[in-house]
């Protein structure tokens, strides 16, 4: 307390000092500023300065007079109003009668400077002027005037000089005055600011805390005095003891108003003595206590009415808001005369203890639950196997309560098959102290189910306090089952593996399996033979090393097209024709490789490759190709000969023939042409069947091709006199299609319209866009395309024949007699071609009414393909 | 001097017609029935134009072409006259130096003769 008292005094002194200083500085500034204002025209007030200015002006020939008061100003102005001119600012006024007596200059709002000629100067000027005038009167000649002008000028110059110098002087005077005015204002501002700032700082930092401290100190003093009053009758040692004891001690009167609190109270609750004195203790809203109403009333009843001790544990709150648990005991103070004079409460902060108890309880429960729920059972048995103790978890494992088992023999529940080995082990165990055995044996649960137990028995017969065999066991049924299943599966897998391997090893086609990393994991003998290798050079090696197959033509297969990689990437089977030549290049064998990806454990792919030997087939194929080429060539030769000889006859000998002979020649010509067409068709057919015809897409205008076909057919079928109408859409694009193939397609379809309509029929050909998804005559368009529709009103196709239309060598019943020229291959060819080039072809027909054929050409065009060119007939 | 045409063709009937027609145009005709004879006659007769079949015994048309055009670098125009019509064969013929490749079944006699005439005339 002493410390704080001196602290206060000290701070007070500092305060005074600061105040003093600020006042002094402030005053100086203020007075200075005021002075400056008063010294607004200092140069004119002090005698010394006046004189200095007079001198300065005197040098110019003028005298200085000041007018400072209003009255003076008026006087001067009046006096000289007529003869003087006002010069204000920068303007110079013209003199009156060339006679200048002086200038009145307005210097500031309350000061006028009057400048008059000094008499001396005035004399000089006037005499000079007079002499000029006299000279001019005397001698009014130009020369005289000229000579006097100089004098005149001189006088003028003098006047001007004076005026100029006044300018300068006054300018300077003004400057000084203004800067001083500024200084005044600045000073005023500074003063005010300083004072205010000081004031605020003073209030905030000094006065307020000071007041607080004073308040504190005052209260403390008061409290101490009160306390002293109370304990003055007690001994010092008692005082000391009570004050310093660790528990909170609060003494109240019979109404519960606090008379005393010890130091521990402040320590535990955070409230100071003076904050508590006089307050009602136990007030349910009081200083941190959170007693509910029933407890509160019970407390009062106990201590006041029943005059007994009251004990409770409540949640309390310190002054700073922190929660704590207090154990509180309130006792009534009863005098020897049995008078109740007050209450004393002893309170302890038991937060930590409470927390510890909770933790212990929690751990106990956890432990117990672990024990009870555990799958592990601890039991004790005697040397005969008699059960002496079972832990509670036995109920979970075996279904029996501990009390149901104690006293019974543990071997009773054992499976007969395990009994013998178990007994043997047990006997051994019993004989050797400290010995441990471990068995996996079957026991029967109360519900009859057999389970596997992992049993560990320890001989603790000699251990004091136990004197028994301690048996720990655990249910391992699930584990055992799983192990059995696994074993079975392994056996099965092994069997299957062997089967598969045997199978694969003996397949006559080469087979190789590649794992996810591209390494060979399996091969068969046929592969070794094909590659002339031995087995130990294959396993684990990257497939690119060990499978030296080339493409069909003997070229290297580009890395990104290798079927094995493609199969893995595309996640589907990939087929490719490959070849392999023996090192001496003498023998080449061809295979159709099928690479099948197989998904292993969800994400990795192995690829199984089967090489189907097609060497023989290829040989047949090439033999076929050769034959066809040769045959068609051979067939064509006689056809050329016939053609040309017929040409000669027609050209030269025609006139020599009879009509009949001419007719015969015509027939021969026709047959010859048919033969040519047939040979072409046969060639096309063989190329088609082998899938090897050339597709050479070029930008083509379908309308041109269609029109060309129509023109040809008009010529060829001119005898039928059909009316053909072409309805081609305006904005059909040029698409990339093979012109010859398109020609063949159109020709076959449109020629059917010509052939299978009676003479003078109408044929309509439409060419339009069609979009993917649209439907025409029951067929859905698969790709955006150009759609060609050929409509005739001819014989139509009988319903029962309609599914034979696209087959080879077909002759439809109702028209076979009418069509002598067809090979029966046309539509078959059309369909086969369409399959290859991505077109669709279909028709709708009704017998006797007519047929409409549809053909699509994809907008995306045809894909180029190498092969033999098809013949256009 | 009348121009000389060498016709190489193993098929007798065709050879007859061709000889007949070419002579009618006013040209002299020399014939050969196989590749070997073709080369022989070429050396001996020094024709102005050759009509060359492909499929011939002993030495075929392509081989003749190679010999005359590639090895001997003869400037004599050679027209291939055959029934082989595949793109590869046309390509081969042209690349070996034939000035034209005609498929017999596809051309009329008249047109063929016109063509021969034009080639001869353009030579002057």
Topology diagram in text:
The complex is a heterodimer of chains A (873) and B (124).
Chain A (H helix, E strand, L loop, with lengths): L1 H37 L3 H4 L1 H12 L3 E6 L2 H12 L3 E3 L14 E7 L2 E7 L1 H20 L3 H90 L4 H9 L3 E6 L4 E4 L1 H7 L3 H4 L16 H13 L4 E8 L5 E12 L5 E10 L1 H23 L2 E6 L5 E4 L3 H5 L3 H4 L10 H16 L4 E9 L5 E11 L7 E8 L1 H30 L4 E4 L5 E4 L1 H7 L11 H4 L3 E2 L11 H8 L3 E8 L6 E13 L3 E10 L1 H39 L5 H31 L8 E3 L1 H15 L6 E6 L6 E3 L1 H17 L6 E9 L4 E2 L2 E2 L4 E8 L33 H12 L3 E6 L3 E9 L15
Parallel strand pairs in A: 2-3, 22-24
Antiparallel strand pairs in A: 1-4, 3-4, 5-6, 5-9, 7-8, 8-9, 10-11, 10-14, 12-13, 13-14, 15-16, 15-20, 17-18, 18-19, 19-20, 21-23, 24-27, 25-26, 27-29, 28-29
Chain B lengths: L3 E5 L3 H14 L2 E5 L2 H11 L3 E4 L8 H11 L6 E5 L4 H10 L3 E4 L5 H15 L1
Parallel strand pairs in B: 1-2, 1-3, 3-4, 4-5
Give descriptors for this structure.
heterodimer, A: 873 residues, alpha+beta, six-stranded antiparallel β-sheet, five-stranded antiparallel β-sheet, 22% strand, B: 124 residues, alpha/beta, Rossmann fold, five-stranded parallel β-sheet, 5 helices, 49% helix
Structure description:
The complex is a heterodimer of chains A (873) and B (124). Chain A has 873 residues and is α+β, with helices and mostly antiparallel strands. In chain A, 48% of the residues lie in helices and 22% in strands. Chain A contains 23 helices and 29 strands. A six-stranded antiparallel β-sheet of chain A has the order 16-15-20-19-18-17, sandwiched between helices. In chain A, strand 28 and strand 29 (850-858) form a beta hairpin. The model of chain A is unreliable at 34-46, 81-104 and 106-112 (pLDDT under 50). The N and C termini of chain B lie close together (12 Å). A five-stranded parallel β-sheet of chain B has the order 2-1-3-4-5, sandwiched between helices. In chain B, helix 3 links the parallel strand 3 (49-52) and strand 4. Chain B is an alpha/beta fold and 124 residues long. In chain B, helix 2 (35-45) runs parallel beside helix 3 (61-71). In chain B, 49% of the residues lie in helices and 19% in strands. In chain B, 34% of the residues are buried. The A-B interface holds A 629, 632-633, 636-637, 639-641, 643-645, 647-648, 651, 676, 679, 694, 868-869, 871 and B 11, 13-14, 17, 21, 55, 83-87, 104-105, 108-110.
